[in-house]
Task: structure prediction
Amino acid sequence: QSALTQPPSASGSPGQSVTISCSGTSNDVGGYNYVSWYQHHPGKAPKPIIYEVTKRPSGVPDRFSGSKVGNTASLTVSGLQAEDEADYYCGSYAGGNNPPWVFGGGTKLTVL
Amino acid sequence: EVQLVESGGGLVQPGGSLRLSCAASGFTLSDHYMDWVRQAPGKGLEWVGRSRDKARKHTTQYAASVEGRFTISRDDSKSSLYLQMNSLKTEDTAVYFCARDRAGNYSWDYWGQGTLVTVSS
Result:
């Protein structure tokens, strides 16, 4: 069982918005502004899309946005496109705990 | 262009050993912290361990689940990172990714495609 809780699936039609949640504790998500999100097409390298809760790496469209309230972080994908269909994982720094980084179980995003 | 390419995965019996490699290109390996992260079939990601940069003498840190069985090393001259896995268990079956630390931001900015390790009799 993963340390962070994500819904196993999410879906939306092209052009719509979808939000994926990532729930943790005050020891990880709630305790640090070091939540990151990764897009993963199976068989390929995971692609970072959000770091430090809200920041987008260079080249990531602004359709992807991140936020956090308390112990729950969220990834919102606006203007859904077919290529957004993938698995999405959240990760968080957990400080002096072992392991110092924890992840969610992943959310399969389907573009209908 | 930064690239990370893992290799060395395969089928191994419980109790056996395997060494994974991660070939890095497009950057100076010695300047970066590097991590191994794994994904068991149908499961989420799990942090395995870290090798710090040359300035921190390549010190290592491991998840409790692999401490004492796995060892991370590197050869900066070959731009390669390694994961030596001993006393393998069936629960170590996973795709193993190497990833470059995004300096100072507690996340990773580049990942490899992964290599599959299957521990089974």
